[in-house]
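**Protein of interest**
===
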Amino acid sequence: MNSIWRFFLCSFLLTLVCSSSFSQTNSLSAQNLATVNIDNISDVEIKAYQTKAIENGLSGDDMLRILKEKGLPDEQINKLSERLVNIKTGTTTKINSDKSSPNSNEKTDRYANKDASKVPMQNVEQDISVFGSELFTSNSLVFEPNLRIPTPAGYIIGPDDELIINVFGFSEKTYNVSVNEEGSIYIPQVGPLFVNGLSIEQAAERIKSKLASTIYKAINSGQTSVRVSLGKIRSIRVTVIGEAKKPGTLTVSSLTTLFNLLYLCGGPSDYGSYRKIELIRGNQLKKTVDLYAFLLKGDQKDNVMLQEGDVVRIPYYTTRLQLTGNVKRKGKYELIEGETFEDVLKFSGGFSDNAFKSGITAYQLTETERKILDINKRQFNSYLPQSGDSIVVGKLLNRFENKLTINGAVMRPGEFQLSEGLTLKQLIEKAGGVQEDVYSRRGSISRLSENNTPQQVSFNIDSVMDGLTNISLKKNDEITVYSILDLKAPYEISIDGFVKKPGKYRWAENITVRDIILRAGGLTEAGDIENIEIARRLNDVNISKLNHVQTEILNVDLSDGPNKNDIVLKPYDVINIRQRSGYVYQRIVYLDGMILNPGRYTLQMSGDRISDLMKRAGGFRPNADTTSMIIRRLIKKNQATEDRERIFSKLLNIGEDSLNASGSIKKEIFKDHENISINLSKALTEPQSSENMLLEDGDIITVENNTNLVTVSGEVYYPTIIPYKPNENLKYYIEKSGSYTQTARKSGTLVIYPDGKAKRIGHFLFFKKYPEVVSRSEIFVPQKSDKNRSKISIGEWSVVLSTLAIIANVIVNLKK
């Protein structure tokens, strides 16, 4: 409701201040202002109303009295009076206005119709290859009319324009007058004045003359001056027709120019002309605009200001061609009558640096087919392209017309200019002369004959440099001067064994054994300096003998001093530094499991055995299995495991899928180590037995926990782990596991003992002899063999027992 009354009050005040007399205002406005809230009116509006009232001869008290007569409450009258005082003293008041309330910046906005004051970016598709289309497709280019500029010279005044008339000097007065529909302005105490269709300069002269002849006589004497400027501006309607992206009638500000309008309509369409845009005013062709003047030179002479009723027509293009290849700006270019390819080249910025500038290729369209034209450089300014032409600018050939190349043993190898009469000697001197290692007996020139057949020309360096041989050079010759170092194989010396940096080193004259040892970082702690072996290559071997000498072996002892017994080495000598005979690395084993003192142990004697180590370990824990132990020993890298997998599969009669299912077993079998099971009790009670093995460096020895369990696996109905029961044989444990399955091979049943040994069921006549079962044993029942499977050969049984021993120990460890 406040917004409605606010609008009502504003209308009333405008009616009041625009009237010619107070009585007229009073008679025209009889509305009730009882519900108006002054807080909803901005300081700018109140000041504007006060200024209008003063211009019409009303004081502030008169305005308040009139508003009170129209029903404005005393409370609002007091607020308005206080606001007028604050405005006079420069104190601003914050108003609580809604979205429709004008803001404090409205007075400074020259344009009244804000919806038409900006030219929006047109979201239209455009062929971006057309030269000039970037003006209408780039968001970074904004063609909006600038409203914050001085009054444009030549601006034509029309209805709804606001003129600001400043009178200063002997008299001080400011008039804000608007042009009405009839094209007149009304100046108080002066009367109406017709200004429609006049330029701003003409209107200023007419206003000045009118004021001088009426109320401001001092204008004629120069004591009073008059300045007329443009305030709020009007909207105009202009029309775009033809090949525009968005033709139609548009409402824009009166400061809008032709370029603003083209941007608003999206520019020419894909078939529209950029060179012949027409501005029609009053049914007559006012101007023909060529956008290329602006695109190429920034010339805005055609960017004229539009007027009410103007029509902009964009015709179809007449001639357009496609320019591709090695030019600075590729694209489609429009031509007008009389323009040649020379003009097109200017439009594109000219040739690129690597362009072939001597000619172009033009592809033209005829009435029935296409044709091709070769245009040379002399025809550029006379060739008139046709519409639809496709012109291609080629690339410069990747070749030189005067290049020479010299490589090899010269001071400055590289590429040089072939000047007239240049000789080989002069070129070598240009390259700084030959190097010290030059092979002077022969050099070569690689060149191409007239039919591009490769040719080779040889020369003697000494003869050329002494002037005895004069060789003329040709374009693209490649000269090679050889070095004696290039013609020899690289001389090297090898040193291996107990040095810090073994490897190959470059041979040099007079290099000795001590020199090469120093290059290799010296001997390691184990290196033997007293017995160094040198293997020397022989060049005159008598290969006709059956047992001929092919390498010379030299032994050197360098222990007597730095200057004794040292020998000079030859190319390709191989030096071998051996380990000192009395030098021995410590051998370390690791003892783990149910031991009183597990950990790392260093072997003291070369023949240390299991029993010796167990004495040092202090004995077993109470729950240790003292009958067996496992030694984990590294396998040599060249030991193959493929046969073990194949035999393992045959033995168990299982396929690859089943083998993969037993992943833990397979993983253990094919590691880079092997497990050795030992009968520990026998090794300790019988030290001379084979069970008391010699220990090796890196052995990991494990004494397991006595689990007192028996594992049953394989072809039984319920593979399980059963508590050990003394005096019970294999049959007892098979029955506890649900007995044999239908696919079980009973005769192949094995008992695998903790020490890795295995026994199977024995037969005597019609009687079966079941093997003894002990604690931590595994009973394994294999599957019946498939007829299609090949049998295990006798030679393969040598691997079976060791494989089964590994399986037994792994399964026992997994079940712990």
The two ends are 91 Å apart (CA to CA). Residues 797-815 form the longest helix (19 residues).
